Amino acid sequence: MKKIAIIAFVGLLPLSAVYAQQDSTLNRTVVVENEYNPTVMDASKINVLPRVEEPAVVKKGIEYATALRPVAAWNYEEMFPIVREWEWEKAKRGYVRAGAGNYGNVDFKAGYIWDITKGDRLNVATSLDGMNGTLKDAIDNDWKSRFYSSSFNIGYRHSFRNMDLNLGGGFHSRVFNYMLSPISSISGENDKQHHTLGDFYVGLSSTDEMMPLQFTVQTGFQYFRQKYPAISDENSTEKIIHTAGDVWGKLSDIQRVGIKFEMDNLFYSDDLMKDYTSLGLNPYYAIDEDSWRLHLGAHVDWMTGNDSGIDVAPDIRAEYIFSDSYILYLNAQGGRQVNDYRMLSRISPYWGTEQQLDATYVPFDATLGFKASPVSGLWFNIFGGYQIRKHELFCTLVPAGQFVYTGFVQDKGKIGYGGAEVKYGYKDYFDASVKGTYYGWTTDSDDDMIVAMKPEMELNFKVDAKLMDGLKLRLGYDYVKRKGEDVDPVSNLSVGATYELLKDISIFVDVNNLLNKQYYYEGGYPAEKLNVLGGLTFRF
């Protein structure tokens, strides 16, 4: 778990962060219920990189998915969608984690899942992460950094005879301060920035497979408020009505036709931003045979306001399976990314903008790859592709009086990418993975300064090992070389350990940036040097 000090870079996952795979007789994963253990995504391992699809490999025998799902503020979904009753009865419902470290780091998380009745489930989660310490800016000046993030989420599900009703909401608060401009040595009265986020939702999903049409639909309200932004003394508020869904029907046991939709209605409190609406339709046809899969669709996106009009992009995925465990795949996809306040905050919480940003649109993103599992527990993936991004976001540090903030420049970007990944796992005793990817970025303006913070090469390595009953060790390394020659690469070597003191009580320790490197994330703000976080976890 990285600390909030490095949350200055939160990765921009283009269009979709998750590839929802179709089930087949050759590809099934049995989900075994684990104790509830909410996690927060590791900020340092999420980079602004083109999406690379990973179609599933045919498993050698039965493999068990035990990965935990993070509690999100908007994309609510059941933590364990496939549950064996006897496993669920054994699983712990509650979880508490608390830790502290240098740089004033604090880490607290708690959650509980309560099965009120057989058809009613309530889950709650809360967290507090933060730091308060001195970091070095780009010219080696001391910066007294402060960042605390707290959240509370609640979700409720009621199962009717033929459908599920889902209700929930969340609250998220961030308090922090901007980095001082090199020409300023004092902090002002507005150095206590505050972001307030809130949302609630209601959704319905069909559960009766005998119905001619299946559906899932959700609508809700999102709220984002800035207090003391870098470029204005006036507070700014963004409100969104978000609606999304999927309606489909089976033509046969292996064929499916449907349409997905998503609509965002955005409203702003200040004159700088104009209200607008984004609507996306995704009709599709899918067929799932034993030896091949095909998904044919298209993204049709309409928008009012800035860059208004209709855009069209493909939504095609094809996989051919041979020799039981080898897959040749081709993807050609695209779509729209609305650059609302939440999206900008995922790149950097220290963001600011003096103009309304256009939505980023991907008219073409093609990937060709080969994926295989020659022996049980081992698989590899070799891939390459090309992507076009209209109105791509490029980050730069911008001075604003006594502060500097993360600003954005938009340009058309083209990315060729290629890489390979290897993973090996042996039961619950050992898991290792290594992945390397090269990216070639170009823009219409051919301005090297624009792409300076974009990645040119990325290398990730991770090992998890169980040394003995109750003791687990972790080792990881993340390296990102940037396009800019004067930009120091991300070089983060980390280790960690968890030891079960008593039944359901464990201690943990994580050490990050063991090489004590000085580097910066996409938003241009510094990461912590060598830092340690330790604490206790308790399941009940």
* Helical content class: under 10%
Helix count equals: 2
Q: Using DSSP, what is the number of strands?
A: 25
User: What does the largest sheet look like?
Assistant: 22 strands, antiparallel, barrel
Low-confidence stretches: 1-88
Describe the structure.
By secondary structure, the chain is an all-beta fold. The protein has 2 helices and 25 strands. The chain has helices at 85-90, 341-347; strands at residues 30-31, 64-65, 94-101, 106-117, 120-136, 142-159, 163-176, 179-180, 193-206, 214-227, 236-250, 255-268, 276-288, 292-303, 309-322, 326-337, 360-375, 378-400, 403-426, 430-443, 455-468, 471-482, 490-502, 505-512, 531-539. The longest helix is centred in the middle third of the chain and has 7 residues, at 341-347. It is globular, with a radius of gyration of 23 Å. Mean pLDDT is 83; it is low at 1-88.
How are the elements arranged and paired?
Layout (H helix, E strand, L loop, with lengths): L29 E2 L32 E2 L19 H6 L3 E8 L4 E12 L2 E17 L5 E18 L3 E14 L2 E2 L12 E14 L7 E14 L8 E15 L4 E14 L7 E13 L3 E12 L5 E14 L3 E12 L3 H7 L12 E16 L2 E23 L2 E24 L3 E14 L11 E14 L2 E12 L7 E13 L2 E8 L18 E9 L1
